[in-house]
């Protein structure tokens, strides 16, 4: 592979280069043994992981890392497309064409004759109408059809609730959702002593599902909110570890009261 090709900044050149690299990796005679033995099922977890790493780089505002993570995610698409082409299903060109066709169809106010002077709300309604028509052509006629099972559970809960809300199945007031959370919390507390492990899991699922509904009513992304809470917990717990280490101790050598006091100190420090 020539240095000129490697340095070429044209997107089409580098895309062709990446596709050729993927073909060589999967070549049954001269490719990489690990890449050759992979399947859609074995690669799918890596695809999900790479998508999360893209989101993580964005959350950290690390543009250098984002460039690499987007490349990793693109490679996942190339990998799946190569396996599909080998099996006679479709090629990467088919993937790109399908995406282009979909975007053009879903944006008639940009690529067609529709009026571009629409509110974001109207554009969202138009977008949903186009997607509903696409689902109907695929034979997905039920309200909740097409919500991917493989989505993270919290995100899938949100999407299911949004679909149901479009046909009127929704609490009209936030207070009703909060009341339901209180009800589910009581049921979970009672379940500790009276239900099996499956029953407790079921009640916990109900509570989490309603929490996702509250997030939707408050126009909060529950995944983003939980990621933020995770980061906050890690930051404050690491402050506890640092404070203890300063005194020659570890969390395992400390009491809960000590750590709780340090947690509150870290919390106060963040607010100053």
TrEMBL record:
Write down the CDD domains for this protein, in alphabetical order: NTP-PPase_MazG_Cterm (cd11529), NTP-PPase_MazG_Nterm (cd11528)
What's the top EC group for this one?
Answer: hydrolase
Query: What Pfam families does the annotation carry?
Result: MazG (PF03819)
Record domain NTP pyrophosphohydrolase MazG-like: where: 38-111, 177-236
Give the GO biological process terms: dATP catabolic process; dGTP catabolic process; dTTP catabolic process; dUTP catabolic process; response to stress; TTP catabolic process; UTP catabolic process
Q: Which InterPro entries is this protein grouped with?
A: MazG-like_dom, NTP-PPase_MazG-like_C, NTP-PPase_MazG-like_N, NTP_PyrPHydrolase_MazG
Q: Which GO terms describe its molecular function?
A: ATP diphosphatase activity
Tell me which UniProt keywords the record has, alphabetically: Hydrolase
For this protein, the Enzyme Commission number is 3.6.1.8
Superkingdom is Bacteria
Q: Which reaction does it catalyse?
A: ATP + H2O = AMP + diphosphate + H(+)
**Similarity annotation:** Belongs to the nucleoside triphosphate pyrophosphohydrolase family.
What name does UniProt use for this protein? Answer: Nucleoside triphosphate pyrophosphohydrolase
Organism listed in the record: Salibaculum griseiflavum
């Amino acid at each position: 592979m020539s240095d000129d090709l490697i340095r070429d900044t044209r997107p089409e050149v580098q895309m062709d280069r990446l596709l050729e690299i993927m073909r060589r990796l999967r070549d049954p005679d001269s490719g990489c043994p690990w890449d050759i033995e992979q399947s859609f099922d074995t690669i799918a977890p890596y695809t999900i992981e790479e998508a999360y790493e893209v989101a993580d780089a964005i959350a950290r505002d690390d543009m250098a890392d984002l460039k690499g993570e987007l490349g990793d995610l693109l490679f996942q698409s190339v990998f799946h497309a190569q396996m599909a082409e080998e099996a006679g299903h479709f090629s990467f060109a088919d993937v790109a064409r399908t995406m282009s066709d979909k975007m053009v169809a879903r944006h008639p106010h940009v690529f067609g004759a529709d009026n571009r002077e629409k509110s974001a709300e109207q554009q969202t309604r138009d977008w949903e109408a186009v997607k509903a028509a696409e689902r109907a052509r695929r034979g997905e006629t039920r309200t909740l059809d097409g919500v991917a099972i493989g989505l993270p559970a919290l995100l899938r809960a949100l999407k299911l609730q949004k679909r149901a809300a479009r046909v009127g199945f929704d609490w009209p007031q936030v207070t009703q959702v909060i009341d339901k959370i209180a009800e589910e919390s009581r049921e979970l507390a009672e379940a500790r002593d009276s239900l099996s492990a499956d029953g407790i899991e079921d009640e916990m699922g109900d509570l989490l599902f309603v929490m996702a509904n509250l997030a939707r009513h408050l126009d909060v992304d529950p995944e983003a909110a939980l990621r933020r809470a995770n980061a906050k917990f890690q930051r404050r717990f690491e402050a506890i570890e640092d404070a203890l280490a300063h005194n020659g101790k570890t969390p395992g050598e400390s009491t809960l009261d000590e750590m709780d006091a340090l947690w509150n100190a870290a919390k106060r420090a963040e607010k100053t």
